[in-house]
Amino acid sequence: MNAGAAGTPAAGALRTLRYAALLATYVQSVNVSIPNAVLRFIQASTSMADDQAGWIFTSYLAASAISMPVASWLAARFGVKTMYQAALILFIVGLWIATCTTTPLEFMGARIIQGVAAGIIAPLSLSIALDTLPPAQRPTFGVPYGAAVLLGIVSGPAIGGLIAEYHGWHTVFYSSIPVAAVIVGVAQCSLERKKAPTTPPFDFFGYGTFTVGMIMLQVLLDRGERMEWFESREIWIEAMTSTLAFYLFFTHVLTAKTHFLGKHLFKDRNYVLSTILFFAFGFVLLPTLALTSPMLDEILGYPPITTGGMTIPRGVGLVGTFLLMTRMPPLIDNRLVIASGVAVVIYANWLMLGYSPLMDWTPVAVAGFVQGVGMGMLMPSITKMAFSTLSPTFRPEGTGLFNLARVYGSTLGIAIVQACFYNNTQAMHLALASHLTPYRSAVHSVTASTPLQAVGALNEMITGQAAFIAVVDQFKILMLAMVVVIPLVVFLRKPGPAN
Fold first, then answer.
1. Which of 228, 348, 409, 434 has CB 3.0 to 4.6 Å from 371, enough for a Cys bridge?
2. What's the pLDDT at 454?
């Protein structure tokens, strides 16, 4: 009885810690997309150009991708509790700085700080939550953890739009600070301060070259349009640095015995193909939000609360289908589910090609919901296939690379569609303006007190039309990304009974 009495508070503390870890996972995920519905207000407050808006997302994602692989090593070196609390405090600092910024560079710096902290919070939250569970229950914890990640990403714009509508965009970031502070307090009270007896080896050379290569590639994609691509010396330097870094990384992989990404992972066909599919999943997941919200907010002029609300059907479809998929009978061939999920996403993006400036909210809600259903089918089925034939010994390492593929898919996807968007906007603006004559009805529909104002109003109308066409064209890129990877499903192997 004494043991039971003594064990009850401990069990309650572990449960509280587990919920706090899930909440931390949700908070760092929601801050990926929470600025979506308030982009034009952030741009106005920081004098941010239109072609810099994508950096709001890519800076956060790229920074989290950099810190994520080294999180476990830092926890072993300095202790889980120390690193977890430090990351949460750093996250709070990044949120606070974001509310004080007045220039684009300051705001990007705040997002980078948030991203670095988020890259540590996410894996450590999973590790902490798993430690609070008996071994028999740990394999099923991926369901609530995955749901927390997805729910955070898809609910961010709705929450941001609702808060900004009544309290301004700064409150969007302020709102996460007390939540993160509570999690720090829970960790202080419930998380044991322990450190690994020895610090595990870590391939810093491989990690460093891979990270430099990805950073330079990301900067190249983000800055290319503004710097006129290879007309700029800066772009040449970034391209050559990225190429050299990747050359050193792959040489290191082929020659070293131990390295950042183990060769054994690439010997499992299902794992490699599933990781590529998960990269494509990330390539579509966040770039769709990065295109839809500005389309509604800046081009069609919807208020923040409406812009955020338009993401709710997509979130309902995604999270609801994800939870249903966890109860799928094991007799169903997972390859068929993956193929069906990709087909549904392709169909959803095809629906998005039919968007029109004259539409109401219905097409956006329907296409978003359909895409959410497809994505909800894909995430659990791809994850299951990736680890179905991988040795349990390699699963911790494989999990890190697998999640990294989704993050890099999102950050590179956003950079690519943003670069193509602004290039297409300029091309469409020229095409539309070239067909404008004094006899066009559009010319006479513009009313202004002076000829100069009339020209300005006409140019603004053409720019809006060009931007809308360019946005729709980017949904075609996302659709083609899924079309390209669907043949990979044919090469997946059906796991044996033992798996």
1. 348
2. 59
213 neighbors 242 (Cβ within 8 angstroms):
yes
Looking at 218, 239, 259, the residue that finishes a domain is 259
> What pLDDT, in 10s, does the model give residues 120-129?
999 999 889 8
Q: Is 138 left (phi over 0), alpha (psi -120 to 50) or beta?
A: alpha
Alpha-carbon distance of 153 to 286, in angstroms, equals 8
Backbone angles phi, psi at 146, to 5 degrees: -60, -40
Give the position of tokens 């966890």.
326
For residues 71 and 84, give the distance between their C-alpha atoms in angstroms, rounded to a whole number: 9
Q: What is the mean pLDDT of the segment spanning 223-249?
A: 89
Residues sharing a CB contact under 8 Å with residue 187, sequence separation 6 or more, in sequence order: 17, 20, 81, 84, 85, 88, 128
63 shares its domain with 212: no
In a domain, 2, yes or no: no
Q: How far apart are CA 65 and CA 76, in angstroms?
A: 19
Estimate to the nearest angstrom the gap between the alpha carbon of 299 and the chain centroid: 23
Give me the DSSP letters along 23-45.
HHHHHHHHHHHTTGGGHHHHHHH
What is the chain's Cα-based Rg?
A: 24
Q: Are residues 276 and 250 part of one domain?
A: no
Domain, as residue range, for 399 = 264-434+443-499
What is the total count of domains within the chain? Answer: 3
What separation in angstroms does the CA of 389 have from each of 254, 268, 269, 395, 497?
23, 7, 9, 10, 11
Residue 1 falls within a domain, yes or no? no
> What CATH number is given to the structural domain containing 65?
1.20.1250.20
Pair 324, 277 in one domain:
yes
CB 289 within 8 A of CB 33: yes
Residue 494 C-alpha from the chain's centroid: 29
Work out the end-to-end distance of the chain between its first and last CA atoms, rounded to an integer number of angstroms.
Answer: 41
- Report whether 413 contacts 283 (CB < 8 A): yes
CA dihedral sign, ordered 381, 386, 390, 394? negative
Q: Establish if 276 belongs to a structural domain.
A: yes
Provide the CA 449 distance to its chain's centre, in angstroms.
46
| Mean pLDDT calculated for residue range 53-74 | 88
Residues 457-476: tens digit of each pLDDT: 676 777 778 888 888 888 99
Asked if the structure places residue 270 within a domain, the reply is yes
